[in-house]
Q: What sequence folds into this?
């Protein structure tokens, strides 16, 4: 095969783009099933209360209502992605304002909404806990006294069952993890200086524009059809099977497009309720959450409290590091996809730095808040904001340039990280240098016309590669085209376009000779679905495996026709030939033999058996800001980001992922916060919940360090998640550089800066 860059590295538009802009793409909300009823849930107005009684008689009598379910007449099922602590409907206790209490199926959404208002519920309010630190203190209300009795998916539980991770003497813990090496107390004793800081971050919402939809139809044969906004159709089918007590093979998740995810569309939402109401009424049922529900009851990014204590030598060498993170898991752990229901992010409490002694631990705890799930780079924006702000503070106290301080302490190949992992192929130093050079770190700062003070800040983050299992099927069609059947959806990241480029490159075919065929769980091979930065690595390698196998089978067939051994056959530009032979066979020629009666299908798969890939990706970001010292108003003048994507399969999509990640980081830094007051969401709409718009985005400089060789097809690495985390601390560090105050919580608002400046100057605020 020659010209290996014929498709790799090319700016190929996304293949689903035309169907989306013309309105042809089918989303879950577009699906209308004959005879469909509308579902609606009644949600608790209390963050914590005992349910004394529920009277649904008036709702049942309303014309157009076909069924009403309450916790007392619904199955006593506990549901969850991996850990089952969420009741189908609350039976005895509600644990957050938004907990489902009853559900209705009616002829229209208006009738369903009116019906839930007619359900009378008597509550007895109970003491609530909203702060994650207070939730772990002695005397805190215990929200799940039976936590050790909850089940798992799969059952029996994994090798590290949750009860083994729950400290016996700490209340309300969902999970607890720890890492370390050396003797941290000895390290502090050996240090010249010791620094301590505490940081807080609030919950945030994924901000996808497509709300969650679940439609369920039960066929005459008893099979369950599901159309929903779910990024993991095959795992979702298994979770739903457990939740409703139906064999997995009797459920089919139909293929629909996903309108944004960012980690928020991996749980079952209202699908179990839609099934039970469909079973009761004999008609399909759809639930479509409005945005009041999305903000008040969908899975959020975890709020956090993070404490760090670090000992250093006077020359800046890191000696000892003690880090503790407490994450606000909300009322339930059911939305987390890991069996031990902890976040991956806390393993970055030590980042990519070298420590002689380290101890880190993290807990997810129950509170009476909206249940937290996963959001892009789960746990890392919180942890990296704390760590990189802390590291900058240390460098400042030592009188060291933040760049030089990081450079001397970053890990090299095969050195143990704070979490105990040894990786190779690290590009930490190269990426850091690239960001600093592109940003003009050591150059003069601009003088903006507004008269504010300008500062520069630096932050870094590292990200593991997502692992897992994927299967793809490469099919030679009768006309000579190749179709690749995949079970992985595409939530807008361009994964299907990437898979098409990989397949076309390996088969040396034009792009228009390759089709990607996503389908239902009945049509497609098993796949883990989206998430964890595994699209290119895991799914790409599965497609590469299938296409390599197909090419091999075609070579064998061509060799038989040529009368030569297969190893003498070459494939170039979609044509098979052999040295000295005049005959050439194309895919269409071979299809006449192999696919005369239908597609000739060859499967391929990829499995990364462990939880850790062999290398990590790295991002370094520099922010340049202007701060008005009179008002505290901060304006980002420029952002520079450097990353190590390995071989770039599609520059257009890589650039889009970088820009999207940095803009999400910008929102996390300056404006995003799900404000929960006494258990109630106070900004539950896009009118009040701010996310960045085009007007908020400053000039962005992207630098790609492509020297790294990744484990994905053609040496690719992931790019999306690890572009998010470094933005907020880079901006916080730039604010400190500008006006000398350190903001230790997100978002970094003008009010916080103004108050910090007044406190620094001893003025009353």
A:
């Amino acid at each position: 095969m020659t010209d290996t860059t014929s498709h790799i590295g090319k700016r190929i538009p996304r293949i689903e783009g035309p169907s989306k802009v013309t309105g042809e793409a089918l989303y879950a909300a577009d699906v209308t099933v004959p005879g469909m009823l509308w579902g609606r849930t009644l949600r608790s107005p209390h963050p914590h209360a005992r349910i004394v009684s529920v009277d649904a008689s008036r709702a049942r009598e309303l014309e157009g209502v076909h069924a009403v379910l309450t916790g007392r007449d619904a199955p006593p099922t506990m549901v969850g992605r991996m850990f089952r602590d969420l009741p189908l409907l609350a039976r005895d206790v509600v644990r957050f304002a938004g907990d489902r209490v009853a559900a209705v199926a009616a002829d229209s959404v208006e009738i369903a909404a009116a019906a839930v208002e007619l359900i009378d519920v008597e509550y007895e309010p109970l003491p609530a806990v909203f702060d994650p630190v207070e939730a772990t203190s002695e005397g805190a209300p215990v929200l799940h006294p039976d936590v050790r009795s909850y089940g798992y998916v799969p059952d029996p539980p994994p090798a590290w069952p949750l009860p083994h991770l729950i400290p016996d003497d700490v209340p309300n813990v969902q999970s607890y993890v720890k890492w370390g090496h050396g003797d941290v107390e000895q390290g502090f004793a050996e240090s010249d200086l010791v620094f301590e800081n505490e940081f807080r971050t609030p919950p945030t919402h994924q901000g996808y524009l497509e709300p969650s939809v679940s439609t369920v139809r039960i066929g005459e044969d008893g099979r369950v059809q599901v159309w929903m906004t779910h990024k993991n159709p095959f795992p979702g089918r298994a979770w739903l099977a457990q939740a409703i007590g139906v064999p997995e093979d009797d459920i089919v998740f139909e293929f629909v497009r996903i309108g944004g995810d960012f980690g928020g569309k991996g749980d079952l939402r209202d699908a179990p309720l839609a099934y039970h109401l469909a079973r009761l009424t004999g008609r399909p049922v759809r639930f479509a959450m409005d945005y009041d529900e999305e903000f008040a009851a969908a899975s959020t990014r975890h709020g956090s409290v993070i404490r760090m204590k670090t000992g250093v030598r006077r020359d800046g060498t890191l000696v000892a590091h003690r880090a503790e993170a407490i994450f606000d898991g909300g009322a339930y752990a059911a939305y987390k996809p890991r069996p031990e229901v902890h976040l991956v992010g806390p393993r970055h409490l030590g980042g990519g730095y070298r420590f002689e002694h380290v101890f880190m631990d993290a807990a997810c705890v129950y509170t009476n808040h909206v249940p937290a799930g996963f959001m892009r780079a789960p746990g890392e924006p919180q942890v990296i904001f704390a760590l990189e702000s802390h590291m900058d503070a240390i460098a400042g106290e030592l009188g060291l340039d933040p760049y030089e301080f990081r450079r001397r302490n970053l890990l090299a190949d095969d050195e143990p990280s704070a979490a105990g992992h040894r990786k190779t192929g690290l590009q930490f130093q190269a990426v850091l240098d690239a960001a600093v050079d592109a940003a003009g770190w050591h150059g003069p700062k601009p003088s903006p016309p507004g008269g504010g003070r300008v500062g520069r800040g630096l932050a870094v983050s590292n990200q593991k590669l997502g692992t897992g299992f994927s299967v793809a099927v490469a099919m030679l069609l009768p006309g000579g085209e190749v179709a690749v059947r995949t079970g992985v959806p595409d939530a807008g990241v361009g994964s299907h376009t990437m898979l098409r480029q990989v397949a076309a490159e390996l088969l040396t075919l034009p792009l228009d000779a390759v089709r990607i065929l996503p389908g239902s769980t009945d049509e497609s091979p098993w796949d883990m679905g989206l998430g964890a930065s595994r699209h290119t690595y895991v799914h790409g390698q599965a497609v590469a495996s299938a296409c390599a196998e197909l090419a091999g089978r075609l070579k064998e067939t061509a060799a038989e026709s040529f009368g030569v051994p297969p190893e003498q056959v070459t494939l170039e530009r979609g044509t098979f030939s052999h040295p000295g032979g005049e005959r050439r066979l194309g895919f269409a020629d071979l299809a006449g033999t192999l696919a005369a009666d239908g597609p000739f299908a060859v499967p391929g798969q990829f499995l990364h058996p462990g939880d850790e890939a062999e290398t990590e990706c790295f991002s370094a970001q520099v922010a340049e800001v202007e701060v008005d010292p009179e008002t505290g108003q901060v304006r980002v003048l420029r952002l520079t980001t450097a990353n190590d994507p390995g071989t770039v399969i599609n520059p257009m999509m890589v650039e889009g992922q970088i820009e999207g990640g940095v803009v999400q980081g910008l929102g996390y830094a300056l404006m995003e916060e799900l404000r929960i007051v006494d258990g109630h969401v106070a900004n539950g709409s896009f009118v009040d919940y701010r996310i960045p718009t085009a007007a908020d985005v400053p000039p962005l400089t992207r630098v790609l360090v492509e020297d790294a060789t990744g484990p994905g097809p053609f040496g690719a690495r992931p790019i999306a998640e690890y572009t998010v985390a470094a933005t907020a601390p880079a901006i916080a560090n730039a604010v400190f550089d500008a006006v000398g105050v350190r903001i230790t919580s997100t978002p970094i608002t003008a009010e916080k800066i103004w108050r910090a400046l007044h406190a620094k100057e001893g003025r009353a605020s």
Observations:
- The two ends are 71 Å apart (CA to CA).
- The first helix runs from residue 17 to 21.
